[in-house]
């Protein structure tokens, strides 16, 4: 999943039972994603700037926040917010579909199973597989988002006027290959990240569900805790590939030949510690952003169930 991601989608243990349920899940996921972006984008911007800025630009996350506010004001913390907002609905829609299809695939290849309930490892596998088709939406959205987030760090002034201006320039520069740059790194981040997310959510949800009750009986506090824990689990392993993704997507054409070349050059230039740049903002964002996601999903789903 995208920082907006992919990685921050509500886990539905069972596939939708009707077209109406599928539509409600699609819309609820969109509302949850918007909530996650609005809460988490400032953290994400600081993370991206720490990951991509030349050594010595910032002394840490607090310094990055201070300099961003001094240069652009409070609205500067939302630079690049349009791409993830516009990409939230299709990203979440594809994630829900891909996750359900992956679960169905696992059931199909194990026809003689006695229990139709998927294990934690099987849910994690479904989560990993869901990241592959979702990347078709996530990669170009994050490419535009990263470029908008990092512009203004130097002294050359803004290069792009908005998301569509970014996409136009990228396509003119190198066609679809340029627009989708960083796709492999996105899968490398969101595959394991989504696996950890789905597994952590299910484990937390089961732990917080009293004996004799269903997971649907979770209260608000439990939903927040399960979602927040899932986000922390994802970002605890997703930062290294996220650093490489941000560098690949923000660097001038020709800087890196691929994911492994970026990893090699990053370690050679800045040390292994560079792979963990932005960990603080990412972890600070993980819990509240995922809590917002689940609150948005649950609130909108209840509203739709009440009136439709």
UniProtKB/TrEMBL annotation:
Chief location bin: mitochondrion
Transmembrane found in the keyword field: yes
Keywords attached to this entry: Membrane, Mitochondrion, Repeat, Transmembrane, Transmembrane helix, Transport
Family matches, as SUPFAM superfamilies: Mitochondrial carrier
InterPro entries associated with the record: MCP_dom_sf, MCP_transmembrane, Mitochondrial_Carrier
Superkingdom assignment: Eukaryota
Cellular localisation: Mitochondrion membrane
Pfam families linked to this entry: Mito_carr
Keyword Hydrolase: no
Membrane topology: Multi-pass membrane protein
First and last residues of every Solcar repeat: 20-105, 118-207, 218-303
Family indicated by similarity: Belongs to the mitochondrial carrier (TC 2.A.29) family.
Name used for this protein in its record: Mitochondrial carrier
Originating organism: Rhodofomes roseus
